[in-house]
Amino acid sequence: MEPSPPDDSSVETGCLASTTTSPITPGTGNIGSCSSRSDSRQFPNAPSAHVRLAQHHHAHPHPGCILPSSVPTPGQANKDQEARNHLQLIPRVSAADTQSDAKVEEIRTTPLFTHHVRMVMETGRGPLAAGGSVSDIFQQYALLGVRERTYGSRHPDMSNTLSVEQNLVYANMNAPWSVFLCGSQGAGKSHSLSCLLENSLLTSSLAGNNPNPLAGLVFHYDRFTSYESTQLCEAAYLCSASVQVRVLVSPSNVHTMRKLYRHLPGLPAAAPRPEVIPLYFQEHQLNVSRLMTLMAANGEKAAPLYMEVLFKILRDMSTESRGEGRLDYLDFKQRLARQAFSAQQRTPLGMRLALLESFLAHKQQSEQSTARLNRLFNSAQGTLTIVDLSCPFVNENDACALFTICLSLFMEHRGDCGRIIALDEAHKFLTQSGEAEKLTEQLTSIVRQQRHLGTRIIIATQEPTLAPSLLDLCNVSIVHRFNSPAWFEVLRRHLAGAHLCHDHRDAALFEMIIGLKTGQALVFCPSAMLDASAEEGVRRLNDAFIRIQIRNRVTADGGRSILASDDMQGIEREDIPMEELIVPFSAATRSVKAVARPKRLTSDRQNHDSTDASSPAAKNDTDTQPSLRDNRVRLMSEDQDEEFVDALSSTGTDDTQPSVPDNAARSPSTINDHGPERRYPLRTSPARAIMPSPVPAVAEPVPQAVASASRPRLALASAPAKSVTTRSRTKISQDVASVHVREAITALLKDRPNTLKFTAVREQAARSAGLPEGFFTSTEIWTKWSRRKIRELVVSIFLYIRLASVD
């Protein structure tokens, strides 16, 4: 029988093609040969081109093939040498080796795997890359839960044949992944989020092994209404495992959030507490993109006309900065002030600037405050930063804009260590607004580049309808119990395992989701490695899904009592260390305008004259900053009259309300036995040396009785002297009480300049005013007033000292 003509496929590549009948000599350079693993990776001296052509020559060459001559010319020899050099760049790997390496890489980067697959790999029954070891495949892992059943698989369900230990499901912490969590309130969504954060941040625990922990960032927002209804971020309980937790909150709600987070319900008494810090951005952190985000420049579909002027100013400043990216905010405001905006345009522009300045720190800060600001987004391994913008003055649009800037700052230092970013209760702020869309775009970009950025993303929300694009990109979807058919339709369109269910299987899947117990979830992860067989080896989950029971937390569990309890109402506020005070940009502007810095004079009279804020000299010496906002807050009004207290209250007076009496209080140090007492002005006190304020002119010389007093006191109005020894002061005006509170703060700061206690200030102020020590806590009105006044005065005194030292 004559040989049949060659197949077209065998001669497609010309004379280099060979058939199965052609002899192949090992080591001759045939790329398609299947040699041993060791031989296939070696490059022996290759023969010349004409010899190779002869070896690969087919008995029936292609008609168009031109064979070289058997004797090469000198030019052909040089070309052969060049070809041999180029051949060194071609990897000599067989097809079997290529498939094995790809399989190992797929297993190494899988988001989820079982103990069964792990044992298969460690016993050598699975694929292994050339030159690799079993320990290199699963280096960092932590337990997520236990598989209960597998659904929708073309293969038999192995969960029933494997032991419980072999069905344990682990999260691969060595490879980037993204997780989408959804479910109704109370179904275990936040619990699963906390378990994933534990797996990422704890170095070693009962849950697994994580020698290189990540740095975490969690976004949380809740419409703040009261202590009882505000939902805190459950991830804060990781501090019970000695994880350094830093909570950044809105400056307008910092004291309330400090109280809530420092007294988390259910947290062990000996456990460390989260560190609560007001969220402030430094001016050097502002660039064109962040400034536009903070001013909501991209938050509207049709931007107003004045925003075009703002864009032009930012473009000019960006050009002048020569690519540095940073902006001078004061220069920006000055350029805005020179624009001819109408009154209708200035109002919304002023509101946007007010939002910006409320989260902008002043340039002049103490060393401790500056260091604290610099550390806000410099997260180290095993640390967690929570940005909780729950505040009655921050809406969801503002929260998304601030989250976008925080995310940008957090990702600037991603080279230090791996990152994990979580959105807790995302349905509360990921709305359809422009700010939310910008945040979604930034998260989508990170998910697309998660392997290059080394970042993990977790999105926990009740409604899967908010961000379908994120649902499409996340490679792990964990579905807890919910009852909404609309949510199920979204999942069915975006999840492969749910999309393949039709008709009666659709209804069965929805019933399965409704019937999930708390802590149970369905996991959709096509790249998960959960089973292995002798025929196929380790295989992917593909379009199947599993039901899993999420593990218990290894840190304190705050899910059952996340709402603040009524017992917290009696907790006293924390002390305010001076180094924790950060001067905001807006408050600094108002305070500096209201108070002039005194010149260093020697006498009290000179100091009094220099502190008159209404004088031209004081106005010239005032450090002002351009602002579009009204100066409405003053430390002490410039036209304020001197107030006095009533020493003798009549019977039946309501002592629980602050009052402004007409008479003055009595003091034993100013009693005159020879007649009615005379009215004297308030002398300069140590508090006025720090916080100057206008006082009435001195009308008469101070009597010796007052001059020799141990401390300056308010002068007394005319009143019968006999009542002073039998009756005690029971009411005082708020303006006069402010003077005593300020003097108490000054005196206490001299003794302990770093810490100030509310109780000590109240008692000191009450004693100096001749009131009972518990007067400022006797009623709720005075308690709240004194608390607010102490905070205001401490910040003002601190700012004034800083400005005076700079001057």
TrEMBL record:
Residues 1-81, 593-630, 649-681 are annotated as: Disordered. Gene3D superfamilies: P-loop containing nucleotide triphosphate hydrolases. Residues 18-28 have a biased composition (Low complexity). InterPro entries: P-loop_NTPase. It comes from the Eukaryota. Signal peptide: none annotated. Residues 32-45, 649-672 have a biased composition (Polar residues). Residues 601-611 have a biased composition (Basic and acidic residues). This is AAA+ ATPase domain-containing protein. It comes from Cladophialophora carrionii.
